[in-house]
Every structure is written in C-alpha cells, then in structure tokens.
Amino acid sequence: MPPTEEPEPAAAACPAPDLATLEAESLPAGSAAGRRVDRRGIAVGAVLLAACAGLVLYGVLDTEEKSVEPKRPTASVTYEVTGEGTADLTYQARSESGTAVVARRVSLPWKKTVRVPLGRAPIVTITLDANGGQARCALAVRGRHVQTATAYGSYGRATCQGELPAPENTTDAVAPAQGES
C-alpha cells in the first residue's frame, strides 16, 4: 500500500490570519487608527443630532395660527337632564354625519353644551333604568328654551327635540349665544 500523506493537524485547526485583524490587534489603544473610527462615529452622531434639531425648529417656527373653520356652520345647543339616580342618555353633538352620542348610566343632574351643525335636529333622549323614578330633559338652542319633557317609572322614556335652520345665513349661525364663550 502506498503511504498516504496526512495534513498537519496544526495547519488545519488554525486558518491563515487576516491581515486587517493582525494590524488592529497590534495597534496600541489610543493610536491614530483607533481615533479615526471614533471620530467617524462622533461625526455621524452630530449630523443626526443636527438633522433632528432642524426638524424640531421647523416645527416650532412653523406655528403660524391657521384658522380652522367648521365645514358646516353650527349653533350652540344646551341639553339638561334633571332628576335623581342614573339614566341612559342619547344626544346629538358635533357629528357631521348625524351620529348620536350614547352615554350609559349617567349620574343626574347632567348638563352639556355642544355645537350642532345647522340642518341637524338637536335631540336628547332619556331612558330610566328598572328602578324608575322621574327625570326631566330640557333643550335650549342659542340660549333660548325650546322643549321640556319628563320620563316616569320603570324604563321610562322622554325625548326633547328642536329644529335648527338650514345653513343659509352663516354669519348668524356661527355667532355664539349670549354668555357662551
């Protein structure tokens, strides 16, 4: 049998060293090459910090007051529910689509002033719970009383509803009522 050559175990276990690795390991700490890498990191960090500061300053300096006008003229509507205990309430608020706000187990008395888009009917509905009792709703549009209704007994219901004009005369429509801010 012909003799076979076997590779030397030391050569197979240790691959040839990388030149860059040898140079980096042979440099003393704090050498010029080591500082160059640190300076690049600091420079990149400074650029990022300057970019962030620029964006923040742009946001702060661009705070010009922009008047936000409602898409549709509104009127001030005050809903008031008096009584004792709790009740479920449904009322029309700032929604352009006419979606009602539902408030469950509201402690009475309760009062809320909202801006309702013209052409939408301001409405508040009271529903008493199983304990019943008595609750009264009142509706005022632009500070003027429009309607009152009373709910009695177990699961008693009452609705107060008013009318707002269609949005034609916009100067009167967006003017606040007396005493409103």
Structural class of the secondary structure composition? alpha+beta
Q: Would you state the CATH class of the largest domain?
A: Mainly Beta
Which of globular, elongated, flat, extended, rod-shaped describes the shape?
elongated
Q: What is the C-alpha radius of gyration, as a whole number of Å?
A: 38 Å
Give the termini distance in whole angstroms: 109 Å
Q: How many separate structural domains? A: 2
Order of helices and strands: HHHEEEEEEEEH
Number of DSSP-assigned strands = 8
**Mean of residue pLDDT values:** 77
Q: What share of residues is helical?
A: 25-40%
The portion of residues forming beta strands comes to: 25-35%
Q: Per CATH, what is the topology of the largest domain?
A: Lipoxygenase-1
Widest sheet, order of strands: 4-1-6-7
From the 3D coordinates, which CATH architecture of the largest domain would you assign? Sandwich
**Separate helix tally:** 4
Largest sheet: 4 strands, antiparallel
| pLDDT < 50 stretches | 170-181
